[in-house]
Fold this sequence. Notes:
The structure is a single chain. It is built from seven helices and four strands, in the order αααβααββαβα. By secondary structure, it is α/β, with parallel strands linked by helices. Strands 1, 2, 3 and 4 form a four-stranded mixed sheet that branches. α6 links the parallel β3 and β4. α2 (19-28) packs antiparallel against α3 (48-60) and α3 runs parallel beside α5. It is globular and about 50 Å long.
Amino acid sequence: VLFADECFRQGLSMPALGSETQEQLAAVLSIGTSICNPMDFAADYFQPKVIELALDRIAADANIDTIVFHIAIDLYSVTVKHAEWVKKAFVDVLASTGGTISGKPLVVLMPHLIEDALRGEVEQRLLRSGIAVFSTAPRLLRVLGGIRKYYEKRP
Length: 155
């Protein structure tokens, strides 16, 4: 709700995914996963192939201009401690996009928490691959709002 409120303050919207996209996502995502905008991957959060497929489907949706992916670094750090393979596979899916999917920008929201060393490692990997990483939603949305305003004023 706070993210949506800040979107609207910045003149941004969170459009609904098209019905075809929702059907495609429902076919590959686990039960309990939200296929509305904003999405919640729930049990599929650390399934790299599912994330990759879902991001491709979302990017192909005509209603979507930009993809914001939230990395819950606290959940990520706990998962990596018990499943080291997640560390590489999960970040590789995002990094492999180079910051765009189907010509649409992918940006990451990754707040600072106790695991700042791990966060810094992930952030550097994403930045090197061309993905913008933001530590707060208001900062991310101010940037996106500014970009929107810039393009609205262009001739």
